[in-house]
Amino acid sequence: MQHRYKQSARILTVLMVIWLLASFAGVAMAGAAAAAQGAAAQQTSSIDAVLVVDISNSMNTSDTNKVGNEAMKMFIDMLSAKGDKVGIVAYTDKVQREKALLKIQSPEDKQDLKNFIDGLDRGPYTDIAVGVREAVKVLQNGAEPGHEPMIVLLADGNNDFNKSSGRTQSESDRELGEAVDQAKAAGIPIYTIGLNADGKLNKAPLEDLADQTGAKSFSTSSADDLPQILSEIFASHLKLKIVPIQSMTGTGSFQEVTVNVPNANVLEANISIMSSKPVEAELVNPSGDKVAVPSDDVILSKSKSYSLIKLLTPAEGDWKLRVKGAAKDKIDINLVFNYDLKLEMDKIAAKSYKPGDKVDIGAYLTSNGQKLQNDELYTNMNAVLIVKDLDSGKTEELKLNNTGERFEGTFRFAEAHDYELKVRAEEKSFYRETDPVTLSAKDNAGGAAATPAGPPAGSAEKPFPWLIVAGSAVALAVLAAAAYFIAGTVKQANRGFVGQIVIEIRDENTSEKSFPQYKKLTAFKGKFNLHQLLQLAPELKETEKVVFTPAKGDRITLRNASAARLEKSGRAVDAAAGLELKSGDRVSLSLQQIDKTIFIEYLV
What we know:
alpha+beta, 35 strands, globular, 10 helices, six-stranded antiparallel sheet, 34% strand
């Protein structure tokens, strides 16, 4: 405790020094910071998704051919080649199998997720609350800041409790309500897909889940529709639009369709080809050259019900897609683009407004944090100002003028009310919305309650331009010295991990062992405890005192301050001071509060 106090005091002292020095150089740094902000900005947000699937026996009639599994795999294939995270929760009246959030870094990671889906079996009973509650917990504990969290639930909406458990519908409803409240508080939309092949779909609770969390609900009587629905969910969550390409009937020969890449801001083009039989595909780029499928810039994913071609940073223009399908086989082709684009609104002055006052509205597209330089993208775009009267609840749309490089218009306060304003701009393949701004025209309102970040490019005032150059050098030197000074103090706290931990849990009363769970460690910094890897399950709370820290040479150190017995190679180990694990090392932890043993294997 004393060491931790000294370390905290040292950090606080360093931060105070940095604050004082930075204050001295603050004016000089203002211009430089504004210029650097764009370069440091991230690309459009990644997705942190949990796919939740009902694997109860009732799904044998709702989805006989397990097309739901195929749909989930296609959803995974549509995710970006790198950066998105996906977890999977398979439930009946309990969580049967679970895949922790896995950050996609390679095709092998996607294949790992798809193999997990293929290994799912079905069992008796159903309790929707169990699956949703676990998915929310996974995102609460594993989602990354700046990522877009989401849950996709595939179910028939019906519960079927094990009578011997004593579980009641009211208990399930209460727990589901608590999970939904947590999802709403964390900004996690729950998209639902109701399967109705046997006519027993309970649609209402699924629609309610989606409505409460600001998501969409779908239903279908044919599991064959699931790949299309998952595509729509993917597009909706990223503010994209599905661009349909003409359907065709296979002839046994190649048939050609045009795929238009509209501009240079397309990061990825996802071409989904849905068919009941295998297809062959060829690509020709806008220059007329044949492109190998797959190749460095073309990823091909195949399953029994779809093929997905992902073009990475494709060239602008008309691509030719040639598809050869089996004779008389229906082939549907859809296109979804992923853009590195955001829509920003001009800063609105903070002042008092009254009915009759007008404010100028301006919005513009940004790419990687900087104002878009490609004005061509504006050509086919329309924009509206969406105004919500927060007192009356009424919403109206006001068309904005497209100047060729931005959108402009004027808003007039009609009543002494509070208003929420945001701009929406769209074209046929995507749309974007600005962050909402709240303005007030009430007496003594005090002006704008919120303003969007960042003025338009070139509008920042520079009252002391001579200080920007000279002061920037001073400030950079100050910050460099401060960074060097603090580095030794916080280095350990910020050290990252490599590799993954494989966890299996054995019930000592039944001798049943869970399926292996692969937990990637790259999201952790400094330290984490075993309870975090176990999704903070209440019955496993004693694992909070089993802590991991990074060690040299791609190793990790395990410290056991719990009462649980730790064994390595069949021998008890005292790890209170730390046990270093290298890749391939395996230990077991016998819990004391419940009759379970946790097997831990470290892999790099």
